[in-house]
Structures are given as C-alpha cells and as structure tokens.
Amino acid sequence: KKIKNYINFSKRCLNLLMTNRVDFFILLTLSLLAALTEGLGISLIAPILESQGSERIFANIPIFGKVTSFLAFDDANESLRWAAGLLFAILLFRGLLQYGVSIFSTIVPLKIQRRLIKEIYEGILEVEISFIDKKESGEIIAGIKDLPARVTTLLTAFSNLMWNSLLIITYLILMAAISWKLTIISIVVLGA
Fold first, then answer.
1. Exposure string (b/e) for 156-170, b if CB count within 10 Å is 16 or more?
2. In a 10 Å sphere around its CB, with 0-12 CB exposed, 13-18 middle and 19+ buried, how is residue 28 labelled?
3. Which 3 state secondary structure label does DSSP give 179?
4. DSSP 3-state percent helix, strand, coil across the chain (nearest 5)
5. 3-class secondary structure, 135
6. What pLDDT does residue 138 have?
7. Which of 83, 97, 129, 187 has the fewest CB atoms within 10 Å, counting from its CB?
8. Are 70 and 76 in contact (CB under 8 A)?
9. Cα-flanking dihedrals φ and ψ of residue 106, to 5°?
10. Highest mean pLDDT: which of 49-63, 70-84, 132-146?
11. Measured torsion, CA atoms of residues 45, 50, 53, 58, in degrees rounded to the nearest 10
12. Which of 189, 159, 187 is nearest to 175 (CA)?
C-alpha cells in the first residue's frame, strides 16, 4: 500500500511539474546531462591511473577501455596531461549544469506556486460572501499562502529526488560496466 501511495504521489508531482512543460524539460535535460558528465568525469580517472603504470588494466572494461584507448599516447605524461585537462573541463561543465539544475529545480516549483496562489485568490474573489464569513481568516490566508508554499517545498524535493535518481543510475551503470557481480553485491549490502 505504501508503494502505491508513493507512485500516486510521484504521478501528482509529475503532473504538476508538467504544467510548465518547457521549464520541466529543461530541468530534466540539465539533470540528465549533469549525471552523464559525472559518469564521464569518473571514466577519465582510468587514463590517469593507467598513465602511472605500464599495463592497460582498464582495456577490457567497456566504457573505461574506450576512454583509455582514446587517451593512449606513447608518452605517459602526455596522456596524463590530456586526461587531467579533459577532467578539469568536464568538472567545470558539470558545475555549470548542476547550477542550472539547482536554479530550475527552484524556479519550476516557484512558478507553480505563483500559479496556484493566483488560482486560489481568483477563486476566493468569486465565492459568495457567506463562504468568507463562515471561514476563519487564518484558514483563508493559509489556503492562499501556506498550501501553495507546501506544494512548492514538495515539488522542490521531488526535483532533487529526480536529479539524485539519475545520478544513482549513472553510478550503477558505471559499476556494472566494471563488474556486474560486485554491483549486485553492493546493492544487496547497501539495501540491507
């Protein structure tokens, strides 16, 4: 029953976030790109490690092998310089993407909050005066201000959950590329 409630809650959050389709698409795209650059940055550690030794230890690992062969130069120092330079550039780019994710995960819920406040306020302007007389002023103010603010907090948390989920998926893919057996063991140990 709890899982069903979580699924329903997630659907409601997504429906609310989808009311601003362009901003939500930008948020989703930035989150996905930031997660991918995280994985790319981690994969650039492999050539740095290989440049310290004489053996290509990552050659048979799908993602890491391609990155290390792309940065395989005759001179180990040249490989190290290129890998470090690319890693620096990717870290800067990832920082910009994370900044964008942070901004959009705040802006999208705030736009929804503004729309909800406007709709509630317009609804109150259209009700009979007897409705307003029957309600406590604090209840009306809470409906205009507090309820949309709570929704905004929930949507911001949901946006962060979405970003962190993409990041976890990226890490799991990288772990599985190295060793699917160790990945399963890690999931079981962390789940316990």
1. bebbeebbeebbeeb
2. middle
3. coil
4. 90, 0, 10
5. coil
6. 73
7. 129
8. no
9. -95, -45
10. 70-84
11. 120
12. 187
Q: What are the structure tokens assigned to 76, written together?
A: 């180990």
**Six-digit token string for 67:** 């990155």
Write the single-letter amino acid at 176.
A
Which pLDDT score, from 0 to 100, does residue 89 have?
A: 93
How far is 144 from 17, CA to CA, in rounded Å? Answer: 20
**Closest among 164, 66, 156, 166 to 111, alpha carbons compared:** 156
| Polymer length in residues for the chain | 192
Distances (CA, A) of 67 to 34, 37, 93, 178, 182: 19, 13, 18, 13, 22
Nearest to 61 by CA among 170, 180, 186, 185: 180
pLDDT at 2 over 80: yes
Q: What is the DSSP string of 12-77?
A: HHHHHHGGGHHHHHHHHHHHHHHHHHHHHHHHTHHHHHHTTSSS-TTTTSHHHHHHHHHT--SSHH
In this structure, which amino acid lies at residue 77? N
